[in-house]
Amino acid sequence: MITLTDVHKSFGAKQILRGVNLTVERGESCVIIGGSGTGKSVMLKCILGLVTPDRGTITVDGEEVTASGDRDAFLARFGMLFQGSALFDSLPVWQNVAFRLLRGSLKRPRHEAREIAIEKLRRVGLSPDVADQFPAELSGGMQKRVGLARAIAADPEIIFFDEPTTGLDPIMAGVINELIREIVVEMGATALTITHDMTSVRAIADKVAMLHGGKIRWHGPVAQLDVAEDPYLTQFITGSAHGPIETVR
Amino acid sequence: MSTTRAANPILHLLARLGAAVLGTFAAVGRLTLFTLSTFRHILTPPFYSREFFHALMNVGYLSLPVVGLTALFTGGALALQIYAGGARFSAEQVVPQIVALGVVRELGPVMVGLMMAARVTSSIAAEIATMKVTEQIDALVTLSTNPMKYLAAPRVLAGLLTVPFLVAVGDTVGVFGGWFVSIKSLDFNSATYLKNTIDFLEMPDIVSSLVKGAAFGVIATLMGCYFGMNSGRGAQGVGQATKSSVVAAAVLILAANFLLTQAFFAA
Ligand SMILES: Nc1ncnc2c1ncn2[C@@H]1O[C@H](COP(=O)(O)OP(=O)(O)OP(=O)(O)O)[C@@H](O)[C@H]1O
Ligand SMILES: [Mg+2]
Fold first, then answer.
1. CB-based contact (8 Å) between B136 and chain A?
2. What does the angle CA B167 – CA B109 – CA B96 come to, to the nearest 5 degrees?
3. Residues B118/B111, Cβ–Cβ less than 8 Å
4. Does A35 contact ligand 1 (Cβ within 6 A)?
5. Is there a contact between B46 and A82 if contact means CB atoms under 8 Å apart?
6. CA distance B105 to B85
7. Residue A193 in contact with ligand 1 by CB distance below 6 A
8. Which of A126, A147, A166, B148 is buried most deeply by CB count within 10 Å?
């Protein structure tokens, strides 16, 4: 279970998070929506400890993430897909995917790691030929899928996806949505996904939370998305240019 | 702020000076912590042997051509200068001795050090800074890999171990450059020249040269890692980090050279 309590974060004078409260249950798929630049990515990075909140607490299974325990062991439970993929461009694709399996506590024989990498690549719709290519040789959407394969490679318990379907064609987006759903249902993983793609929201979410103005403006089960009476949420999901959300921000 | 500035320019100046001094102390502190952390990671497992091997190739082996060329030309030019200078008081015959001393004690290590700053510091800083701005460093952390251990430790260790070797090569090639010019255009006898060189050099000369190499290797690689990891955002951040790292490495190498020379020879 992931709990954020009153999390604040500013960069210089710019306040990004102003008291975020959110709970994600174990085995639940939570989707975060919200306007561009509202701090969704920053929020994920706070949970992973990549960004230190100015105020507030974040716990994972009751354990505070900023506590100086064994960080590597803590992070070994997580998988993260970065918005910009963040692939290591000095390593071929398969070594990116199998990064965790080639070193550290999850280390395996090289050929085994490679086989797992190729299997994970297949799951994100990439053929084995890309395994030996370098990230710079791939298209943006392919890079994103390699990032996704890397995030799920070591079968983590908790997975964060920062815009998994952005830049993918509709069919591939469908494949990825199905994959995320599968990971949650079959492997019992906890997933926290950021997306702007409403089809994706409906396909993968158990629960939806909307970030606006540095706080969780609305949250609830995905089924209530259309019946909720929050003007901000309604404007967001209908994609209307008119409503309470400023269009210049 | 602007009113106090107008009212009291001296106070403003003092404030600026104070800020600069504090900033310098803070930077020195950060750099010291970074250095200590790097060495701690060099000494504690896990060790990333693949990264270390790549660093050895990049810092050491691939630097050989540039080190050889700079040393060759420097040794040759030194021989010409000493011959011309020595002729003013009929001391042309000291060319082998002075070339040996100049190259081994000073020019060899310094030239190699500066070439490391140009070739190795810049590439490390640009690579790590690019990794930082494209979130690859964050990705490393989420993959339970400590960036200090994975990126900094192997590179600095490679600098520590390979640059003395490069300096040895540079010294040898530099002396050879002096020898070549001396026998080809200054009418020295080859055997005598070499004998004079070998007889003249002493162990402390060579040891100081290698110690300087190790120190410069650490400085060059450490500066690349430090500025890379502390890079600002975007392409501009990468450019700035690269520039600062090379400047810092060059200045620190020359300063360290002075201090080491003093430590070894100012008895
Ligand atoms: N390291 C940083 N330093 C300074 N400002 C930052 C930093 N990281 C993020 N920001 C700022 O925080 C704000 C929120 O960024 P974030 O990336 O979380 O937005 P987002 O909600 O993920 O948007 P998008 O949907 O476009 O990805 C932005 O205004 C951004 O400029
Ligand atoms: Mg984002």
1. yes
2. 90
3. no
4. no
5. no
6. 20
7. no
8. A147
User: In this structure, are B37 and B130 located in the same domain?
Assistant: no
Q: What is the mean pLDDT of residues A32-48?
A: 93
Give residue-wise pLDDT tens across range B148-169.
Answer: 999 999 999 999 999 999 999 9
- Of the candidates A81, A37, A99, the residue with the CA atom closest to the CA atom of residue B48: A99
Instruction: Look at the block and give the residue holding tokens 């896990």.
Output: B46
Whole-number pLDDT of residue A68: 65
**Residue A50 to residue B48, Cβ atoms within 8 A:** no
- Do A175 and A199 sit in the same domain of this protein? yes
pLDDT tens-digit readout, B90-133:
888 889 999 999 999 999 999 999 999 999 999 999 999 999 99
Give A20 to chain B, closest Cα distance, Å.
22
pLDDT of residue A249: 64
Contact yes or no for B142 and A103 at CB 8 A: no
Q: Ligand 1 pocket, A37 CB below 6 A?
A: yes
What's residue B7's pLDDT?
Answer: 66
Q: Domain range holding A187?
A: 1-77+157-249
- Which pLDDT score, from 0 to 100, does residue B234 have? 92
Report how far ligand 1's centroid is from the alpha carbon of B59 (Å). 36
Distance CA B158, CA B63 (A): 12
Q: Are residues A59 and A167 in the same domain?
A: yes
Same domain, B119 and B159: yes
pLDDT band at B267 (very low <50, low <70, confident <90, very high): low
Q: Do A98 and A141 share a domain, yes or no?
A: yes
The pLDDT-based confidence of A80 (bands split at 50, 70, 90) is very high
Instruction: Tell whether the model's pLDDT for residue B1 goes beyond 70.
Output: no
Distance B222 CA to ligand 1 centre (A): 30
Task: Give the Cα separation of B146 and B149 in Å (integer).
Answer: 5
pLDDT > 90: what percent of chain B? Answer: 87
Q: How far apart are CA B191 and CA A48, in angstroms?
A: 68
What mean pLDDT is reported for chain B?
93
* Contact in structure between A4 and A58 (CB atoms under 8 Å): yes
Q: How many angstroms away from the CA of A244 is the closest CA of chain B?
A: 32
Instruction: For residues B40 and B86, state if they share a domain.
Output: no
Asked if A46 reaches chain B (Cβ–Cβ under 8 Å), the answer is no
Q: Which residues of chain A lie closer than 8 angstroms to B142, CB-CB?
A: 48, 50, 75, 78-80
What residues pair up with A59 in beta bridges, in sequence order? A3, A64
